[in-house]
Write a structure and sequence with these properties.
235 residues; mainly alpha; Arp2/3 complex 21 kDa subunit ARPC3; two-stranded antiparallel sheet; 9 helices; 2% strand; globular
Amino acid sequence: MNRWIRTCAVLAVLMAALTVGASAMHIAEGYLPVGWAIGWGVVCVPFVAAGLISIRKKIEEAPRTKILLAMCGAFAFVLSALKLPSFNGSCSHPTGVGLGAILFGPTTMAVLGLIVLLFQALLLAHGGLTTLGANTFSMAVAGPIVSWVVYKLLRKVGAPAAVAVFAAAALGDLLTYVVTSVQLALATGDGMLKFLTIFAVTQIPLAIAEGLLTVVVFNVLEKYSKNELQALHVV
C-alpha cells in the first residue's frame, strides 16, 4: 500500500510539472446566459439520479470498493484542478474521469464529477455555481460515457487492457472539450471551430498525458486491488 501511495504521489507531481497557473478553468461563473445555465442543469438531473442508484447498488454488492470509489473522486479532483494556459486567456486541463468510468460506469462519474466541480467552484473559484450544470454535463456526463463505451468496445474486440484504458481516458478527455466548445458556441453565437482551435493546441497533448497516467494507475490497481476490480467485473 505504501508503494501504491508513493507511486500516485510521483504521478501527481509529474502531471503538475506539465501545468502552470491560469486565471480560470471550466466555464467561468456568470459566463452563460440564464436559460443555458438552467437548461444544462436540468439535462444533468437524470444522469445524477441514475448515478446515485448505481453507486448504492455497487456498494451493496461489493462494500470494499468504497475506497476505490473515493480514490476515483480524488483522482478527478486533482487532475481537473491542474491547468495549462491556452490562448486568449483561456486554459485547458485534464479531466480524470476516465478511470472512474472504467471502474464504476459512466453514471457514477456524473455524481462524483458533480461533487468535484462543486468543491472546485466553492473552494478554488474554478468554474462556478451558475455554470455547474454545463460543466457537469461536459466533464462528468459526456466524457465518462465516451470513456466507458470506448473501453468496453476495445476489450470486447480483444484489445489489451492498457490500450483500452489509454484510449478511453484520452478520448473521454477530448470529448469533454468538444462538448465545452459546443456549449460556448451555443451561448455566445460564435462558431464552434473557434473554441475547438483554441483548446486543441494544449488539450491534445494533455489528453495523451492523461491516457498514459491512467494506464499506470490502472496497472497499479490491477496489482494491489485485483479483488476489488474483479468484484466490479473490470478484470
